[in-house]
Amino acid sequence: MKYSKVLLASFLVSFKLFSADLDPNEIVKKADLRRGLGNISHSFNVTITNQDNKREVYQVNFKDVNASLTNQTEPERARGRKLLMKDYDIWLYTPNIKKPLRISLEQKLTGEVANGDIARTNYAEDYEATILATEKKGTDDVYKLELKAKNKKVTYGRIEYLVAKKDFTPIEATFYALSGKALKSAEFSDFKQIQGASRATKVTIRDYLQKDKFSVMVFSDHKPQKFDESLFNKDRLEF
């Protein structure tokens, strides 16, 4: 009995030391790099389709986590529509209105995709992480993380996030509103070698309650690129 207590005490001490060394925010940073190029200035394309085979294409100029410009290129009738993100502010520009309209990150862009799902995707910047548990997902050992918003301007109030222990690959996420309501889930897949690392090129987002409502985001053509600051000026969006 005494021997069992010693073993249990040793296990608890080892577990506490292991947990103390494991920074959940570092896990999120590493997982962010599996979903994109991190804070590197670059461009990429996003193709979004939904359950009705509606298709939209966007070209994104990403300067850093606080500045991006999204240009819609398809369908033809929506060409010229732009989303400018600066810090937590986002503006919508359309050729027929011409004056930029301030909108929110959580508003839907199309289907189940919110503006922030394209414009601001760096979880490590916007959320404080804690480890809820370690568990199995299929054959993978995963961290189950809770991400709480650092402020009320972000896309989601809270995220439950599964990340593979072996290589910090993001597996899936559940997104919650600031009110606590579950909104939707996401699955990350089709990992490909991009700029020297394995990164997700496909994200399937489903409505939390109506599972038959979904949007698939496919990311392609990641290219490191420098941009002039003037590109991210809301007063120059018509040019």
Automatic annotation (TrEMBL):
Residues 1-19 form the signal peptide. It comes from Bacteriovorax antarcticus. Residues 67-238 form the Uncharacterized protein TP-0789 domain. It comes from the Bacteria. This is Outer membrane lipoprotein-sorting protein. PANTHER family: SPORULATION PROTEIN YDCC. SUPFAM superfamilies: Prokaryotic lipoproteins and lipoprotein localization factors. Transmembrane segments: none annotated. Keywords: Lipoprotein, Signal. Pfam families: LolA_like.
